[in-house]
Amino acid sequence: MKQDKYPIKEILEKLNITELNDMQMAALGATEKSDNVVLLSPTGSGKTLAFLLPVFLGLKENRKGIQSLIIAPSRELGLQIEKVFKAMGTAFKVNCFYGGHDVKTELNSLLQPPAVLIGTPGRLAEHIRKENFEVDTIHTLVLDEFDKSLEFGFEKDMEFIIGKLYNLHKRILTSATQSIDIPSYTGIVDPQEVSFLSEEAPKGLTLKLVRSPLNDKLDTLLALLAQIGNEPTLVFCNHRETVEQISKFLASKRWVHDVYHGKLEQYEREKAIAKFRNGSTRILVTTDLASRGLDIANMQNVVHFHIPATEEIYTHRNGRTARMDTEGQAYLIMSPEEYMPGYITSSPEELKLDYGIVNPQNPAWATIHITGGKKEKINKADIVGLFMKKGSLLKDELGILEVGDHHSYAAVKVGKAAKMVQLLGQEKIKGYRLKMEIV
Known about the structure:
The structure is a single chain. By secondary structure, the chain is α/β, with parallel strands linked by helices. The chain folds into 3 domains: 8-195, P-loop containing nucleotide triphosphate hydrolases (Rossmann fold, 3-Layer(aba) Sandwich), CATH 3.40.50.300; 205-350, Rossmann fold (3-Layer(aba) Sandwich), CATH 3.40.50.300; 365-438, RRM (RNA recognition motif) domain (Alpha-Beta Plaits), CATH 3.30.70. It has 14 helices and 20 strands. Strands 3-4-2-5-6-1-7 form a 7-stranded parallel β-sheet, with helices on both faces. Strands 10-11-9-12-13-8-14 form a 7-stranded parallel β-sheet, sandwiched between helices. Helix 2 packs parallel to helix 3 and helix 6 (121-129) crosses helix 8.
């Protein structure tokens, strides 16, 4: 496979990538040789681009209807896939459908069907049952993070969807774990397997053991967070109830943080991730929902507040850091009654903590939520212009911007955020009156 093959070279330039990694090259070669491909590769290794390139190469211009269907287990992963495809800068339309998204917006999108449709199993099954789009034009199917879809209980929806796709020619299944049985309903027969899974930990990952003197680990967690300092940190828990318990504890100590789990509303989850990405929250307390599928760059620290139930969960949590040859740390907090799980065969360095005064190191950024986005024809340049011209904000006082369909998030220096909301809260962009609030 030649990397200079048109139009791959042009796409890589738009993505600011100099060359494909070994896994992506192998996946591209496999999809050329076979119509049934199983891609096994760790979280953070670039699987999304690995399957989007063959998806793109299989699209035909001037052909009506949906050509490729990508099924993802979560809205966050679906939106990430959509983001990557759009960044590839092709001429093909892409949409992402998922639970909690406005159905009317999705139906309007289907008036001119996308060439690539991404969606969660439940929402896609709903559209197909109501015959909201034609399935006869779909020739390529991608089952992304298939093992996670099975774990989430989407088997019946996936079986129903695939059973309706009569004209499939190519099937690509991805997974970050080796131990999956591929059901017959997928239609995948004698697949070409591309496996880049390894039992070894990421090269840049350092594991440290933190012993809690008490079964209640909250004070130990606080001391650890203080020692880590103002760096992005994911705190993983086995249960949603513990996430909420830790959140109340950190709030009582006036530590800025956020939470992320499956019972939150879509808006709350999007807000939490936007704040974590832009640096206005440096601590995210979460269930294993955040162990896969989230697009978070520069993730430096992972804390296992609970010992992961399985090696697979442990691997996926650690996969959030030390990605793409960067360095990261994983901390395992253990109470006096807990033992090192058997799947950890190395002897991690034990970290001694200072349980003195642990003052919060709160972020320098605040997030402003703006009611307006792509569907209102608002882009990043519009927001930058408004904040700097009418808000008199300096360049280094405006941080990361994210523009969604109907919502946008802007990181602003803490001391300037309230003033921006006061000055700009009733301004218009392209005739659309904005509403702003600090989140």
